[in-house]
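In this section we walk through a basic example: taking a raw amino acid sequence and producing a predicted 3D structure, encoded as C-alpha coordinates. The instruction is simple. Fold the sequence below.
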Amino acid sequence: MEMIDSLIQAISSVSKELAVFVTAALPVSELRGAIPLAILSFKFSASKAYIISFMGNALPVAPILLLLGPISGKLRKFPLWKKFFDWLFEHTKKKASLVEKFEAVGLILFVAIPLPITGAWTGCIAATLFKIRFRYAFFAILVGIAIAGIVVTALTLAGQQIVK
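The resulting C-alpha coordinate sequence is shown next.
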Protein backbone atom coordinates (compact mmCIF):
# COMPACT_ATOMS: atom_id res chain seq x y z
CA MET A 1 0.00 0.00 0.00
CA GLU A 2 2.86 2.39 0.74
CA MET A 3 4.14 1.98 -2.80
CA ILE A 4 0.69 2.78 -4.21
CA ASP A 5 0.41 5.86 -1.96
CA SER A 6 3.81 7.06 -3.20
CA LEU A 7 2.76 6.53 -6.82
CA ILE A 8 -0.49 8.44 -6.29
CA GLN A 9 1.37 11.34 -4.64
CA ALA A 10 3.86 11.52 -7.50
CA ILE A 11 1.15 11.47 -10.16
CA SER A 12 -1.12 13.91 -8.32
CA SER A 13 1.66 16.47 -8.27
CA VAL A 14 1.32 16.51 -12.07
CA SER A 15 -2.45 16.14 -12.41
CA LYS A 16 -5.17 15.14 -9.98
CA GLU A 17 -7.24 13.76 -12.87
CA LEU A 18 -4.32 11.56 -13.90
CA ALA A 19 -3.89 10.37 -10.30
CA VAL A 20 -7.55 9.31 -10.17
CA PHE A 21 -7.31 7.65 -13.62
CA VAL A 22 -4.18 5.67 -12.69
CA THR A 23 -5.60 4.72 -9.28
CA ALA A 24 -8.69 3.33 -11.02
CA ALA A 25 -6.54 1.37 -13.46
CA LEU A 26 -4.44 -0.30 -10.75
CA PRO A 27 -5.43 -3.84 -9.70
CA VAL A 28 -5.46 -3.22 -5.94
CA SER A 29 -7.42 0.02 -5.79
CA GLU A 30 -9.51 0.11 -8.98
CA LEU A 31 -12.41 2.57 -8.85
CA ARG A 32 -13.13 1.51 -5.27
CA GLY A 33 -10.10 3.57 -4.29
CA ALA A 34 -10.22 6.14 -7.08
CA ILE A 35 -13.71 7.52 -6.43
CA PRO A 36 -13.15 8.24 -2.72
CA LEU A 37 -9.75 9.73 -3.59
CA ALA A 38 -11.34 12.01 -6.19
CA ILE A 39 -14.30 13.12 -4.08
CA LEU A 40 -12.79 13.28 -0.60
CA SER A 41 -9.18 14.27 -1.26
CA PHE A 42 -9.33 16.16 -4.54
CA LYS A 43 -12.86 17.59 -4.09
CA PHE A 44 -14.05 16.47 -7.54
CA SER A 45 -17.77 16.46 -8.28
CA ALA A 46 -19.36 13.02 -8.08
CA SER A 47 -19.89 12.91 -11.85
CA LYS A 48 -16.29 13.88 -12.63
CA ALA A 49 -14.97 11.32 -10.13
CA TYR A 50 -17.24 8.62 -11.59
CA ILE A 51 -16.36 9.28 -15.24
CA ILE A 52 -12.58 9.44 -14.75
CA SER A 53 -12.64 6.39 -12.48
CA PHE A 54 -14.82 4.39 -14.87
CA MET A 55 -12.48 5.17 -17.77
CA GLY A 56 -9.39 4.27 -15.75
CA ASN A 57 -10.89 1.02 -14.47
CA ALA A 58 -12.11 0.05 -17.95
CA LEU A 59 -8.77 0.73 -19.68
CA PRO A 60 -6.99 -2.54 -18.79
CA VAL A 61 -10.02 -4.80 -19.37
CA ALA A 62 -9.58 -5.57 -23.10
CA PRO A 63 -5.80 -6.15 -22.90
CA ILE A 64 -6.18 -8.43 -19.89
CA LEU A 65 -8.99 -10.43 -21.51
CA LEU A 66 -7.05 -10.79 -24.77
CA LEU A 67 -3.58 -11.42 -23.35
CA LEU A 68 -3.91 -13.20 -20.00
CA GLY A 69 -4.57 -16.64 -21.49
CA PRO A 70 -1.77 -16.63 -24.07
CA ILE A 71 0.78 -14.97 -21.78
CA SER A 72 0.02 -17.18 -18.79
CA GLY A 73 0.21 -20.23 -21.06
CA LYS A 74 3.70 -19.31 -22.23
CA LEU A 75 4.96 -18.23 -18.80
CA ARG A 76 3.67 -21.37 -17.08
CA LYS A 77 6.51 -23.27 -18.75
CA PHE A 78 8.77 -21.72 -16.10
CA PRO A 79 8.40 -23.13 -12.55
CA LEU A 80 8.13 -19.76 -10.77
CA TRP A 81 5.45 -18.48 -13.16
CA LYS A 82 3.61 -21.80 -13.11
CA LYS A 83 3.41 -21.59 -9.34
CA PHE A 84 2.19 -17.97 -9.54
CA PHE A 85 -0.51 -18.64 -12.16
CA ASP A 86 -1.63 -21.84 -10.42
CA TRP A 87 -2.08 -19.83 -7.21
CA LEU A 88 -3.78 -16.92 -9.01
CA PHE A 89 -6.23 -19.10 -10.91
CA GLU A 90 -7.00 -21.32 -7.90
CA HIS A 91 -7.52 -18.28 -5.66
CA THR A 92 -9.82 -16.70 -8.25
CA LYS A 93 -11.73 -19.93 -8.79
CA LYS A 94 -12.56 -20.12 -5.06
CA LYS A 95 -13.94 -16.57 -5.06
CA ALA A 96 -15.72 -16.66 -8.40
CA SER A 97 -18.33 -19.40 -8.02
CA LEU A 98 -20.93 -16.83 -9.09
CA VAL A 99 -19.11 -16.45 -12.42
CA GLU A 100 -18.71 -20.18 -12.87
CA LYS A 101 -22.42 -20.76 -12.28
CA PHE A 102 -23.99 -17.81 -14.13
CA GLU A 103 -21.20 -16.88 -16.60
CA ALA A 104 -21.69 -13.35 -18.02
CA VAL A 105 -24.49 -12.41 -15.60
CA GLY A 106 -22.43 -13.74 -12.71
CA LEU A 107 -19.47 -11.77 -14.03
CA ILE A 108 -21.51 -8.55 -13.92
CA LEU A 109 -22.47 -9.21 -10.30
CA PHE A 110 -18.95 -10.30 -9.34
CA VAL A 111 -17.41 -7.09 -10.69
CA ALA A 112 -20.25 -4.87 -9.43
CA ILE A 113 -19.99 -5.90 -5.77
CA PRO A 114 -17.46 -3.47 -4.29
CA LEU A 115 -15.66 -5.88 -1.97
CA PRO A 116 -12.03 -6.97 -1.71
CA ILE A 117 -11.12 -9.65 -4.24
CA THR A 118 -13.82 -8.54 -6.66
CA GLY A 119 -13.54 -6.02 -9.46
CA ALA A 120 -12.49 -5.71 -13.07
CA TRP A 121 -9.05 -7.28 -12.74
CA THR A 122 -10.31 -10.36 -10.90
CA GLY A 123 -13.31 -10.44 -13.22
CA CYS A 124 -10.95 -10.64 -16.19
CA ILE A 125 -9.09 -13.50 -14.53
CA ALA A 126 -12.38 -15.30 -13.83
CA ALA A 127 -13.58 -14.74 -17.42
CA THR A 128 -10.32 -16.21 -18.73
CA LEU A 129 -10.44 -19.10 -16.27
CA PHE A 130 -14.04 -20.03 -17.11
CA LYS A 131 -13.51 -19.37 -20.84
CA ILE A 132 -16.22 -16.73 -21.23
CA ARG A 133 -16.09 -15.36 -24.77
CA PHE A 134 -14.44 -11.96 -25.13
CA ARG A 135 -17.49 -10.04 -26.30
CA TYR A 136 -19.63 -11.29 -23.40
CA ALA A 137 -16.89 -10.90 -20.81
CA PHE A 138 -15.93 -7.41 -22.00
CA PHE A 139 -19.51 -6.14 -21.91
CA ALA A 140 -20.26 -7.85 -18.56
CA ILE A 141 -17.15 -6.40 -16.92
CA LEU A 142 -17.93 -2.88 -18.20
CA VAL A 143 -21.50 -3.15 -16.86
CA GLY A 144 -20.09 -4.40 -13.54
CA ILE A 145 -17.66 -1.47 -13.40
CA ALA A 146 -20.52 0.95 -14.09
CA ILE A 147 -22.63 -0.52 -11.29
CA ALA A 148 -19.69 -0.64 -8.87
CA GLY A 149 -18.97 3.00 -9.69
CA ILE A 150 -22.53 4.00 -8.82
CA VAL A 151 -22.39 2.05 -5.55
CA VAL A 152 -18.99 3.41 -4.52
CA THR A 153 -19.97 6.98 -5.45
CA ALA A 154 -23.18 6.71 -3.43
CA LEU A 155 -21.35 5.23 -0.43
CA THR A 156 -18.65 7.90 -0.63
CA LEU A 157 -21.19 10.70 -0.77
CA ALA A 158 -23.20 9.16 2.08
CA GLY A 159 -20.06 8.79 4.18
CA GLN A 160 -19.12 12.38 3.41
CA GLN A 161 -22.53 13.58 4.60
CA ILE A 162 -22.34 11.53 7.80
CA VAL A 163 -18.92 13.01 8.63
CA LYS A 164 -20.23 16.56 8.06
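Looking at the output, two observations stand out. The chain has two domains: 2-58, 61-150. Residues 68 and 128 are 7 Å apart (CA to CA). In the next section we compare this with other chains.
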